[in-house]
Write a structure and sequence with these properties.
about 425 residues; alpha/beta; Molybdenum Cofactor Biosythetic Enzyme, Chain A; Molybdopterin biosynthesis moea protein, domain 2; Molybdopterin biosynthesis moeA protein, domain 3; six-stranded mixed sheet; five-stranded mixed barrel; 7 helices; 28 strands; about 30% strand
């Protein structure tokens, strides 16, 4: 006798999944290994950025008041008394009526309140008698980067939970952080089931198909930040599957099985679950992806996914990917949710959340969602063509042409011409 299957709304399924996905312990990693990972401890600026006033241009640093009378007909001459390079500074304050040549990033001398770029002045002479000829006034603050203009001391420069980019790491480096507190990659095992499944290179035989789910799910897990520790295909043998789930759970934070959770007489995952404990069979109010299993096995999260490729992909986006992101400590769990207009009517029903595979088109500055093909859970082409999954929430029976909706963005369409 197999485990009973119970009906559950998509909202409840998501709540149950995310409540079970406790973030993994954080580790300190060098910046070179932090890109794309979740920051677990906020970066607080220990000092201001820039840490001192500096020049934004190569030019002359001077007192703006000394240039107030400058015109094209009556230019002002100012004596140039030195040069300030990046990494160096002047010990003495800049005297009135004088200027210094200054390079980008160099500290501004005390007293100077403006920088005139080299191309806006004329250099006269060299050495002790050097002057700069200016034909228009400079304004206080011109071409100066104020201390703390970018980041103030004590400010939260990078908040916990953000996905670290190369630009975030540059900011951290500038503040003196050589390593950051980030999450480890969740260890994930994938077990694909089915006597009918073949490797991609194998020749088809009567009654067989090539396994598209295992490579697809493996790549989706990796893209979501997981590390694959097991990725294998098993025959429809419940005892062997139960043993492999136990073994995989001992190695993994998450175990995913593909297929064998629907209403068939020989679904192996349903039969294997009897001996595992802690796992429920669900009929989730979503399409595609209604039959599922979820729970904990040996301390690992367990997801029993349906066998049809569209169901695998949609359940991954709706439930598995958010769980993997939560395990890593990300604040944002889902792909970007973008507003779209519906290009063709979409039927649903109350009590179910639909995920409609759509291509996106730019029309007069708006994104229009066009169904990427027949919404058949066994078809692969619509998923390949889709840019997004349009979400039809529970409680909405249909979307008409022109209706506004929200879509999970899988990839960007081509830019409008």
């Amino acid at each position: 006798m197999t485990l009973p299957s119970r009906s559950i709304s998509y909202a409840e399924a998501r709540r149950r999944v995310l409540e079970s996905a406790t973030p993994l312990g954080a580790t300190l990693e060098p910046l070179a290994r932090c890109s794309g990972r979740a920051l677990r401890r906020a970066v607080i600026a220990p000092h201001a950025l820039p840490p001192f006033r500096n020049s934004a241009m190569d030019g002359w640093a001077l007192h703006s008041a000394d240039t107030a009378s400058a015109t094209a007909d009556a230019p002002v001459r100012i004596a140039v008394t030195g040069v300030v390079a990046a990494g160096h500074g002047l010990e003495a304050a800049l005297e009135r009526g004088t200027a210094v040549r200054i390079m980008t990033g160099a500290p501004l001398p005390e007293g100077a309140d403006a920088v005139v770029p080299f191309e806006e002045g004329e250099r006269l002479g060299e050495g002790a008698g050097e002057q700069v000829l200016l034909s228009r006034p400079a304004r206080a603050g011109d071409h100066i980067r104020a201390a703390g203009a970018d980041v103030s001391a004590g400010e939260v420069a990078l908040e916990a939970g953000r996905e670290l980019s190369a630009h975030d790491l540059a900011l951290a480096a500038s503040l003196g952080f050589a390593e950051l507190s980030v999450s480890p990659a969740p260890r994930v095992s994938i077990l694909s089931t089915g006597d009918e499944l073949l490797d991609p290179a194998e020749e088809l035989r009567p009654g067989t198909i090539r396994d598209s789910n295992l490579p697809m799910l493996s790549m989706l897990v990796t893209e979501a930040g997981g590390t694959l520790v097991v990725a294998e295909r098993l025959r429809d043998d419940p005892a062997r599957l139960e043993a492999r789930v136990r073994e995989a759970a001992a190695l993994s934070d998450v175990v995913l099985t593909i297929g064998g959770v629907s209403a068939g007489d020989f679904d192996p995952v349903k039969l294997a679950l009897e001996g595992l404990g802690g796992i429920e069979l669900w009929r989730v109010g979503m399409r595609p992806g209604r039959p599922q299993a979820f729970g904990r096995s040996g301390g690992s999260l367990f997801f029993g996914l349906p066998g049809n490729p569209a169901s695998v992909a949609c359940v991954f986006e709706a439930l598995v990917r958010p769980a993997l992101r939560r395990l890593q400590g990300f604040a944002g769990l889902d792909r970007p949710l973008v507003p779209v207009r519906i290009a063709a009517a979409v039927e649903s029903r109350e009590g179910r959340t639909d995920f409609v595979r759509c291509a996106l088109e730019w029309r007069l500055g708006a994104l229009w969602a066009v169904p990427a093909g027949a919404q058949v859970s066994g078809h692969l082409t619509p998923q390949s063509r889709a840019h997004a999954l349009v979400v039809v929430p529970d409680g909405i029976a249909a979307l008409a042409h022109g209706d506004e909706a929200a879509a999970l963005l899988l990839r960007l369409p081509s830019a409008p011409r």
